[in-house]
Amino acid sequence: MADNLKQAETELTLVMNQMSAYQQAIGLMNWDLRTGAPKKGVNQRSEALGTLSTEVYKISTSTHLKELLDIILTEEGKRQVSEITYRSAEELKKEYDKNTKIPEEEFKAYQILTTKAESAWEEAKSNADFQEFQPYLEEIVAYKRKFVEYIGYEGHPYNAMLDDFEPGMTVDTLDQVFTELREGLMPLVEGVKQAKQPKTGFLFKHFPKEQQAAFSREVLQSMQYDFEAGRLDETVHPFAIGLHPNDVRVTTKYDESDFRTAVFGTIHEGGHALYEQNISESLVGTVMSDGASMGIHESQSLFFENFVGRSYAFWEHHYDRLKSFADGQFDNVSLDEFYRAVNEAKPSLIRIEADEMTYALHIIVRYEIEKALISGEIEVKDLPGLWNEKMQEYLGVEVPHDGVGVLQDVHWSFGAFGYFPSYALGYIYAAQFKEALDQDIPNFDELLRDGRITPIKEWMSGGIHQHGALKKPGELLQDITGEGTNPQPLLRHLSSKYRSLYNF
Amino acid sequence: MADNLKQAETELTLVMNQMSAYQQAIGLMNWDLRTGAPKKGVNQRSEALGTLSTEVYKISTSTHLKELLDIILTEEGKRQVSEITYRSAEELKKEYDKNTKIPEEEFKAYQILTTKAESAWEEAKSNADFQEFQPYLEEIVAYKRKFVEYIGYEGHPYNAMLDDFEPGMTVDTLDQVFTELREGLMPLVEGVKQAKQPKTGFLFKHFPKEQQAAFSREVLQSMQYDFEAGRLDETVHPFAIGLHPNDVRVTTKYDESDFRTAVFGTIHEGGHALYEQNISESLVGTVMSDGASMGIHESQSLFFENFVGRSYAFWEHHYDRLKSFADGQFDNVSLDEFYRAVNEAKPSLIRIEADEMTYALHIIVRYEIEKALISGEIEVKDLPGLWNEKMQEYLGVEVPHDGVGVLQDVHWSFGAFGYFPSYALGYIYAAQFKEALDQDIPNFDELLRDGRITPIKEWMSGGIHQHGALKKPGELLQDITGEGTNPQPLLRHLSSKYRSLYNF
Description:
- Two copies of one chain form a homodimer.
- The first copy, chain A, is mainly α and about 500 residues long.
- Among the domains of chain A are: about 100 residues; about 170 residues, no CATH class.
- Helix content of chain A is about 65%, strand content about 5%.
- In chain A, strands 1-3-2 form a three-stranded mixed β-sheet.
- In chain A, α15 runs antiparallel to α16.
- The radius of gyration of chain A is 23 Å and the shape is globular.
- Chains A and B meet through α1, α2 and β3 of A and α1, α2 and β3 of B.
- Chains A, B: Its EC number is 3.4.17.19.
- Chains A, B: Its cofactor is Zn(2+).
- Chains A, B: It catalyses: Release of a C-terminal amino acid with broad specificity, except for -Pro.
- Chains A, B: This is Metal-dependent carboxypeptidase.
């Protein structure tokens, strides 16, 4: 290898190691903030986080990095450096371009705006008054429209935003996929609505927190989550965070009058954590030590939550254990009744409370609105009306006020456009992976019934987790399923599951 | 103020803010490592800590910093910049000089040596074989002797090492103070040895961990430790750590067959924590947001542990509460018996297990050895013999083997010479402060009896804590007690307490 190329590869590794040390510190500081840091220290913590993030930003936009990338991202570089280095350089170049194309002054003004907008959103939401938030959102949308022009895009301007969360995803694909999905889901929603509803009263009995925690730990263990490379803590808004594959932390929330929050929440975050724990050691310290995309990450949490955790076979194994931790709550509840209750589906107003069957419809509402907003087909003032119409049309629910409607999510207040679709893509990918897995592991249910999750986890780790960000989402999907984004497996799964559960 | 001076002051503040953001991250990462970080992540954590520490080192030895310090540390600077800036600049200059005077290559070789030496020490200690450790210690001592020459000193070369932990302290002072102390302590040791020993069997009954934790929290609260600016966690080797005054964490250890470990350990670390929590907000983000010295820091932990926590009056208030958390362990134990038991004194082999009365003698043994070693009066090979002689002479104990003798402490393996004296100085200062406090608060015992620690804590905060590192240890002592380091108050305290406890 040419000397300058060799040297550039070595230096890039050092730069990435430095960035990942900062990221580890930032990750831990955030985890700590959300799991018990003393409340008086929040301001100083934010300042320190700001300082460290600025350092990472400086490195990622430095001339030194740019020079290294220019040497590596050449025909000769592609032939001679390792795949990990080359792919890392590609990602760093993408970030570099994004970060340097937007004029610094404008980006700073935008950041100040989003900080204010988040408080304004909170206020507006609690007052259920969209007009309080409208001027902020108008400014944010104006910036976003301008920024995509700086960054550049092919086809629809919204593609540039999708790319932040789901590299390679486009409006063309999503239009097709989401239309198909919506048309497939609506009859299911109707069917469930008309059907006899399951009994659910027993779900809401008192289940002591410590016992929920003990059961949650047991479930994580059975999922092959490695407690020597992680820990479980309590928080207000649960998340999983990977500082690196040997330190991946899960957090959960205990609601003593609804054990489902902790149990299904822990399984969900556990799915994210399995991804992070099983990224190949060879990627550690590079920017490839990350998930392939937000949608692929979500496919792992949702696969474990819905295809494992909400399956009948899983509870054949775990129901007696759950009973042993509960205070008699399930004594007169059959496994069948339990299974029906934890799989209750019904159209509702709030996305984060939605069930497996209706969730994607909440996302489609948001996708259609975001896309039209960025292209300029609609304006911010049109949002509440459009929102309410679409909720009525797709889910059949009446929105009583904006607080539980268009103002329910925080995302827009910090400019996260293009983020929502990934949630629905997570459902779609999970179902696609499940059908591929069924080919290789036909006795899936039997394994769950025996509490043997290892082969399932190994299959996911081998096909997905280990590759980190080396493979792009489309590539992973193609390699595993032989096709692109396809909503049919999800529709087949939901249709068969809910027609059987609700007898329609 | 001249423009360049003004600008230098502003820039120095920015540099210090950046350093303190890194320090906050480093502090949290260390705290996490010792309170529950997943064990598989230790290597990656060490690497990240290395990266961040290197950054701090780079800043503290940068030409940019040097230029700022040269502008500020002038006659004009002294007149015009704030006292905080000037004192900070002095400290930074001291660090800069130390860090730049030792040739980088030698310092790196020394660091590699100490890493190896620590493992060698551990091995040697468990084999009780000094010869295994001897070659490492010889090399370390050779480096230390060379480094003090690079750094420079006045009088005895050991002064340069004392200065790392106790700015301004000298061999001349310590020789006098420690001789006086040793001569005053030896008759007390003898007296206690001959006297009737207290009953202590009841101390070692089973005391459940959760209940110890609850009592420990209550005691911290009564000390005015602010839980909104801190937290209490479990660890193996207890410590307190201040990330900044609004985030000061205490750790403790629960021994279910000896509650004293947690209770007195928590009070001790709580004393350190009160210091850190009460440093003035105006110092935050500067290098002045720190204790004045290790000895002054230790004076605070020891004041709370011994003068508060081991006093009769304290237990008049807390004994019933302790009983309510214990499982009947103290049912037939009078307050008087309890008080005698937790104040048991007897000569022993191990420093970290030593009681209030004999502790300083362990330090004096180490001081005399270190001093002679650095000056070249003795060599490493002489250590075991000298150690055993001095232990016999000062404490009257026979050392059965080096594992519980000269090899017991980790300090020398990482080159921490000059550190030990600060522990004894902590005892001495604590007693000096106590006599000064008695002048201002003559009803000390009455306050403890009523559980009113606030005025005591306020007195310490006003005189010591709030100043951070602005005042040097000698200055603090002079301002509060009107004198320099004086062992007489400690001797008066120990003599009166132990003559009365042991009736001699």
